[in-house]
Specification:
By secondary structure, the protein is an alpha+beta fold. It has helices at residues 15-39, 51-60; strands spanning 3-5, 8-9, 63-64, 75-76. 44% of the residues lie in helices and 11% in strands.
C-alpha cells in the first residue's frame, strides 16, 4: 500500500497489485518446464512453455471465489 505520509495508509486494490505476482509465477512455471524438458525430453516438449499452458496452470491451481466486487470468473491465488 502506498504511504500517505505520517502513519496513514491508503487502501487500494486492482490488477496492478497482482501483476508482479502473476508475472513471477508465470516465469517460475516456464523455468520449471524448461528444467523438465532438459532432463526428460521424452515426456516434456515445447508446449510446456506456451502461454496457453501457463495460463491453464495458473487458472487450474487457483481457488474460485464468490465476491460481489469481482467480475464473474475471478479467482484468488493463495500464497
Amino acid at each position: 500500500m502506498p504511504s500517505l505520509g505520517g502513519n496513514g495508509y491508503a487502501n487500494n486494490r486492482g490488477t496492478s497489485f497482482a501483476a508482479p505476482h502473476v508475472s513471477a509465477t508465470a516465469a517460475l512455471l516456464q523455468q520449471y518446464g524448461d528444467a523438465h524438458r532438459a532432463s526428460d525430453p521424452v515426456h516434456w516438449d515445447a508446449s510446456a512453455r506456451t502461454h496457453q499452458t501457463i495460463k491453464a496452470c495458473l487458472l487450474n491451481s487457483a481457488d474460485k471465489i464468490k465476491d460481489d466486487r469481482l467480475r464473474d470468473g475471478a479467482v484468488r491465488v493463495e500464497r
